[in-house]
Amino acid sequence: MRDVVIIGIGQTPVGEHWDKSLRHLAHDAIMAALQDADLGAADALYVGNMLSGELAGQEHLGALIADFIGLRGIEAMKIEAACGSGAAAVHVGMMAVASGMHDVVLACGVEKMTDAIGSVTTSGLAMAADQEYEVSQGISFVGLNALLMRRYMHDFGVSKEAFAAFTINAHRNGVNNPNAMFRSAVSEAAYARAGMIADPINLLDSSPVCDGSACVVLAPADLFRSRAKARILASAVATDSLAVHDRRDPMALDAVTLSTQRALAQAHLAHAGVDLFEVHDAFSIMAALSLEAAGFAKPGQAVQMAQTGEIAIGGRLPISTMGGLKSRGHPVGATGVYQIVEVVEQLTGQAGANQVQGATVGMAQNIGGSGATVVTHILGAV
After folding, report:
1. Domain containing 99: what range?
2. Is 166 exposed, middle or buried (0-12, 13-18, 19+ CB in 10 A)?
3. Residues 331 and 215 in one domain
């Protein structure tokens, strides 16, 4: 197996892109990544996407986008793992390069969500859950996370207000990210006033519906060492049941635990060796559960970790360093690639005011569904 490096990154601003179609968003991110890598072509393209068929009426994204970017004829396909599709595309691309199948691979995540009305988007997102045993009973995705948050509050004696620390941290960092959808700080008072979506989850606990695309160019280290921006030290996937009620403990995201353990083992690292963690904070509760399941906090202690500033840029384990899903935005199939792009920015000193000083190792974790698919990448500085 060959060592794999990232030699180019690209991203579009996250937001409501009424003037751009799905293919145009992907084009912009891919062209930026190829330019960053100083390349004009690639051997293969893997597109992470969740909802193109449901919301845009378009499947067959591999061939569509390969043709649109001027690379008709290359290997290209869509990779789907619900909200974990972006990181799954990077995982497949990494395997293609590591195996020697291809030398230059584009891993692009793209999602166009805002052209559909809210009820259609909500139904589409619910497809990440168990249709037969959850969705058919009327559950929505935000409803599932509300149940998890209520159970967490009950089990660990945590107040609703305590979760504000995750939102405040994400927005504080998002202020300095030019590609973030929400570039404004949030106060505890604003959090307390936010409208309720599914009790106890309010508007400021939730990542937004949005559009966006991000891309990384993957290549073998032995051939592209001089262009390397970051090394892929680990890429690990784990799964759990789609239905929350089928899990051994709804407060334990076992796929997060397994994926993290496998990634750390691949990278030959302990938890203390990770300098920053791009967590999948689609909802505040997922940030807390992920930190605990990944082993960075004990059960019930992640909220306190946030309240004491340990997750801030200068803290013990900075998370959501460019705003995370909450402030940067969560264009679901693209999110995992945005996370990896942001880790590369940190490792190359391009994070501006959000730079984690001395960062040499970063972890990005992308979650599909309410924890059914988890893809963890660990990147190292070159």
Report:
1. 4-117+210-230
2. buried
3. no
Same domain? For 214 and 294 the reply is no
Give the residue numbers annotated as catalytic, written as ranges: 83, 330
User: What is the structure's pLDDT at 334?
Assistant: 98
Q: How far apart are CA 292 and CA 300, in angstroms?
A: 8
Verify that 154 and 269 share a domain, yes or no: yes
Instruction: Judge if 144 and 100 occupy the same domain.
Output: no
With 0-12 / 13-18 / 19 or more C-beta atoms within 10 angstroms meaning exposed / middle / buried, residue 125 is buried
Count of domains for the chain: 2
> Could you tell me which of 30, 9, 89 has the C-alpha nearest to residue 345?
9
Question: Residue 156, class by beta-carbon neighbours within 10 Å (0-12 exposed, 13-18 middle, 19+ buried)?
Answer: middle
Note whether 215 and 97 are same-domain residues: yes
Global confidence as pTM: 0.98
Per residue in 263-286, is it b (16+ CB within 10 Å) or e — as a string? bbebbebeeeebbbbbbbbbbbbb
**CA dihedral sign, ordered 298, 301, 303, 306:** negative
Quickly list DSSP for 270-303.
Answer: -GGG--EEE---SBHHHHHHHHHHTTSS-TT-HH
| pLDDT tens readout for residues 17-73 | 999 999 999 999 999 999 999 999 999 999 999 999 999 999 999 999 999 999 999
Residue among 113, 292, 284 nearest 186 (CA): 284
DSSP-assigned letter for residue 111: E
The closest of 221, 194, 216, 218 to 205, measured between CA atoms, is: 194
CATH of the domain at 367: 3.40.47.10
β-strand pairing of 44-48 with 105-111: parallel
